Amino acid sequence: MNKDELLRIVDTVIRGYQGDSTVLGSAIGALHIGLLIGWRPLRLIHSHRTFVRYEQILGLDFHEVLPEVGPLADKSLGWRIAKQAENFWDAVRGSVPGRSKQLA
Predict the structure, then answer these.
(1) 3-state SS record for 13-77
(2) pLDDT tens digit sequence for 3-51
(3) How far is CA 11 from the centre of its chain?
(4) CB burial string 22-51: b at 16+ within 10 A, e below
(5) 37 with 79: CB under 8 angstroms?
(6) Residue 18 and residue 75: Cα distance in Å, rounded?
(7) Is the CB of residue 70 less than 8 Å from the CB of residue 34?
(8) Global pTM?
(9) What is the C-alpha to C-alpha distance for residues 95 and 88, in angstroms, rounded to an integer?
(10) Are 71 and 34 within 8 A, CB to CB?
């Protein structure tokens, strides 16, 4: 997704959105951050419900428009921990063995 496509999508969403503007702002922010960190780290940051809500607000599937892992993914502590898990979805569920020790 290039900058022009991103601006077009955001403009269209803003013009058609009805609801809490703070939620809209958060969805747009998640999209921008997701472009830099990727959808996997973004999924660690947000609950499943919030992740899906933002996709619905934006009319996008993050898995299709965001990189799986972006160039700044390692800025996320959660992502750095999740990379050590054998299964990404176990990390999303919070069942990474030894997680508390890694945070110390």
Answers:
(1) HHHHCCCCHHHHHHHHHHHHHHHHHCHHHHHHHCCHHHHHHHHHHHCCCHHHHCCCCCCCHHHCH
(2) 898 899 999 999 999 999 999 999 999 999 999 999 999 999 999 999 9
(3) 20
(4) eebebbbebbebbbebbbbbbbbebeeeeb
(5) yes
(6) 33
(7) yes
(8) 0.81
(9) 10
(10) no
